[in-house]
User: What shape does this take?
Amino acid sequence: MKLRFLVAFGALTLATASCIFGGEIIDRIVATVNGQIILQSDWDDEIRYEAFAARRAPGAVSAVDRKAALDHLIDQELLREQQRAPEAVEPAQSQIDDQIGELRKEYGAPSSEADWNAILSAHRLTGDELRRRVTRQLELSRVVDLHLRPSAIISSASIENYYRQALLPQLRQSGSGGVSLAEVTPRIRELLTQQKINELLIAWLQTLHAGSEIHTQPYPSSDENVQR
Assistant: This one.
């Protein structure tokens, strides 16, 4: 849930409210990124999703995990601001299905939808919410790829070094048959490109942080709405 308001960050105003068991739930502001509000409900949702993606038990979330989830939300907002109109292309349904399929594999590839929905429910997720989150992740991945891939130049020497120093020893250890450098060059190039993009992303995010107005407001914990 993201809303734009021209409000001072320190004002803990009522953003959304509903009555649950007779109590009014206050959704607090926990951060702003260049005026864009991040609500505590956003933070709670991110914590639950990251616990699910990391296969952590819903109750096994540490203070470090909570802080990391808020940092990720801030990074995502900074990247969204860099998205230009031509980049705003919704991922293909096949891409979304493939990504969800990979998540299902992490949970033993449950054969029935009932079993899969039970796993999601344990993390307070729904199939529709999972699909929305995967879609957003793919959209941001496209932003990162379009901005950074042109700078992720991999030399032939780097590919050959990886082949000789990393891949061949692995193949010998596993007893697999040898493969030629030419056969695996495209895969090695993509692997090294992704590694380089990750390095460039860290530097890019540092630059975006330095040039942005970001405020965070600490709270005792997340996933605990305040009732009154």
Notes: The longest strand covers residues 29-33. The helical segments are 40-53, 63-81, 93-106, 113-122, 127-148, 156-174, 181-210. The radius of gyration is 21 Å. The chain has a mean pLDDT of 84.
